[in-house]
Every structure is written in C-alpha cells, then in structure tokens.
Design goal:
Protein name: Cyclohexanone monooxygenase
Helix content: 25-40%
GO molecular function, one term: monooxygenase activity
InterPro entries: FAD-binding_Monooxygenases, FAD/NAD-bd_sf
Largest sheet: 8 strands, mixed
Keywords: FAD, Flavoprotein, Monooxygenase, NADP, Oxidoreductase
CATH class of the largest domain: Alpha Beta
Distance between the termini: 33 Å
CATH topology of the largest domain: FAD/NAD(P)-binding domain
Strand content: 15-25%
Oligomer: single chain
CATH superfamily of the largest domain: FAD/NAD(P)-binding domain
Amino acid sequence: MKQTHFDAIVVGAGFGGIYELHKLLQLGLSVRVIDAAGDVGGTWYWNRYPGAMSDTESYIYRYSWDKEDLINYHWKEHYLKQPEVLAYLEHVVDQYNLRQHMQFNTELEHAHYDETNNVWVVECSTGESFTTRYLITALGLLSKTNYPNIPGIGSFQGEMYHTGKWPREHDFNGKRVGIIGNGSTGVQVITAIAKDVRQLICFQRTPQYSVPSGDGPVTKEYRDAINGRYEEIWSQVRNSAVAFGFEESTTPAMSVSAEEREKKFEEAWQRGNGFRFMFWTFSDLTVNEQANEEACKFVRKKISQTVKDPEKARKLTPHDFYARRPLCDAGYYEQFNRPNVDIVSLKENPIERISEKGVAMSDGTQYDLDVLIFATGFDAVDGNYTRVAIKGRNGESLKEHWDRKDGPTSYLGVCLPGFSNLFMITGPNSPFTNIPPTLETQVEFIADTIARAEERSKGKAQATNGAAESTVSDDSGPVVEALETAEDEWTDLCKKLSDNSLFKKTDSWIFGANVPGKKHTVMFYFGGLGAYRRVLSEVIDAGYRGFKPF
C-alpha cells in the first residue's frame, strides 16, 4: 500500500524544498516533497518567459554545501538564464537521488494540525490525504501570480500570458505584442523580445531605475580564480548584508566630492548588477534622501543619453526614490530606440478596458494586439499561504492569524505561534537578501531545530520508560512552536529596521503595494544576512529563545 504517513512533508520542490529534503533525509527521517508543478524547479519551473535570468552572479546562485560540485559544475556566463537554473536543480536532484522522495502534479489544498495526535493532516489536489509530524512550506516568495483588475480582461481574443506561468513554447515573430508591467520581469521580457516582434507596446505604471547587468561569457582564468576562493567567497557572502558576493560600502555618498561620486557610480555602471550599484557604491543610498538623489540623477542622465526620442525618454525617466528592488538589464533602455517599440504611461493615460482586439485607453486610443503579456508580478511572500487553508491549533487559519496581527508575521521568518511543527522557508519577515544563501540558512536552522527536538523527545521517552512508576512512554513526538511574544518582538524589529529605509517610502511589492486592496506592511527583515545568522545562533545558544520548551 502507498505510504500515507511521513515524519516530514515539504511543500515545494524549488531551491528551498530540495535542500530541506536533503537535510531531513540525512537525519534519517521519512520525507515526502509535494509540488503542484510537473517537475522540480519551483519558481524556475514556471518562469520560462523570454529573458528570464537570475540577477545574482552565477558563481553564487548555487548551493554552497557541495564544494566538489561548486568547482566542477559548469557555468559559462556571469548570469544564469532560466534553462540553466532549472538544469542545475535537476542535476542536484539526480546526483543525490532525491526524485524518489518527490511527488509532482500534487497541490496542497488544505492542512490542519491535529493537536490530539500531534500530526498535520495534509489534503492534496489528487484526492490524497497524508499525515506528518513536521510540515515545511517552501512555497517561494514570488509564486502566486497577480493579475490586475482591469475591466474586460477575459474578453481578449488573442494570446494572453502571465510571466509567472509561461508556456513551454511560444512564437512572437511578426506579431503585435502588448506588455503590462515593467518591473524586473517586464524589463527582462521587453529586452528579450523587442527585436523579434512586429510591434511592442509597453504599458508602464511606474518608470524604473535599471542599470546594466554586466552579463557576458566568463574566461577560464576568471572561473579558476573563483574556484580557488570558494571558502573565502562563501564566508563573505554569509557574513555580508545582501549576500551578493561583494563587500558593501561603508562610505556615505556625501562624504566624497561630486567627482568621486560620479567616478564610483560610473564604475558600478560599467561592472554591472543592480545590487552592486545600490550597496557597493555608497553605504547610505537606501537611508539618506540626498545620497539617494545623487544615484537617481546619475541613472536619469544615463537614460537621457541612451534613449534618442525625447518623449520616450521622458516617460521612461523615474522621479521617485531609487528604493525598489534594484534592477539590472541586458540593454533595456536601448530597446526604445527601435521604431517598433513604444512606451505608454499609465499614470498619464490609464487603461480603460481590455477589448477583444486589444487595449483601450482613457483618451480613446485603441491598441490592436495579437499577444497580451502580464508582467504584473506576484502576491508576494504571504500570497501562496493565504490562498490555501492552513489551520493550526484551535482551527485558526494562517489568514485569520495574520488578519489578527494586521499583516503577515512570523518569528525569524520561519515559525508561528499556534502552528506547532510548522516551518516556513522564506516566510514573512525573512531577510531581504540574495535568495540561495538565505534559503540555506533557514533550511539548516529548520533541520537543526528538528534534529534537536527529535533528540530531546527520545531522551524524554527513554527517561519515562526507565522510571519505575511508569512503563508507558509518550511517543507522540516533540512539539516545536514559537511564542507569541517572540513573534511580536521580531515583527517590531522588522518594522523598526524598515522605518529607517527609503524602501518604505516607495510603493512596491516589497510592502505589498502591487496588489490592490492588500495592506501595505513590512514583509522583510532589513538587517542583512550576516546579522540574521547571528540572531539564529543567539537563539540556539540561549536554548531556543522565543520557543516553547521542547
């Protein structure tokens, strides 16, 4: 008969879920990974849109725990494209024989905690029901697609896609294409398809500050130099703020001359990478308005120098803070010099409705299209949690818990009071950093916590069995749960850190501003990965401070 009870069930087979499976198997636990997708990859399974790539350099968009694989697995360019990331994750799964523990085309629909038996009951789209002592969600920060609420959205008769669920095959050659959204995804799609389509209309709500990625082939000498420094590289990454492989600046922007600032910005522009431009140049771009404006002026100047049509350049030029997720591109602004590419400012001329033939604007303009692409992002962080019914003790759902807390919360981005033995990978108020090192940090903390709980539980059972007055042991297993006071303290800390940041003064998905009706709230820890890792160590050293005794 098919096994229906496991020590642990992991929901999601992306970067986090794969590593969590590997770690829990090392503990000798029985584990099943379930995923709605047809194979491994998580975000990289679904996001197959043209131009999709990581904005982290290839040599650290990896797992760090297999040094031999770090050295021998090939990466040929500075940035990994979607097929390469997917192939890498498939390689890891096959190398460690993990696929046998995975079940695909299986979506979590309901989960509730059975307090009497200390198990989670997990119900799936396949009709199957599982029980598990530990439930670990690796749902991803950016996975629940967000469609804008535009009248007539279902009436369009052409091809319609969302970048978060892209088809395996598409052909836009010679077609009239409209794209709504120009965040990180939109920038990548626009840059990739502009040269192939007959016409490309970019419907832009908010102009973006984007810098070159610096992508290109790597030399053997460069790769050999990286391979020889991996211990040093990963040590720096784990102890840095944003974990992107460079030393963050400690120099305030206004402490140097205008000439020195210009030189530093230009050097960062030439080297490429959005996070490098924001955090390597100067130390205060995200907290000091005057320093931030200096960076803004530099990028605005680059836009005016690049885009030849003054009207297109005007629409593409941002005037708010440079305080969204820092973007990089492979020639985004240059695409608007093509005669077949145009930009529409939705703040100046909003979309009135989507018609059978295309997009109708408020001023009466009608754009007839063959293809309509939504690069409108995701209901980030908590979106994938609130769309399914996950209920803890007393039947309270995650959504009800977060409504009561006035926004998505957690302790350490990992645990929640009232949800025993539930662990989240990149849950609310996890670090705002490079994802793979953050995932590794949380996966290792979760696995170590489970190992400690298992050890203590066995010790208690042995002590009970050995007692003269009792021959019956409690074999229901350990209960790991965060204290509500700890959740509140962590939430307050995250709010204080975000209050000091210009990110909070800019509408973006980082605070939920991209989803109509969603409360704007802090959803990340802005203290940096190094500080976060120190907090986790302190929690462990203090006997799991912030948790109920287990």
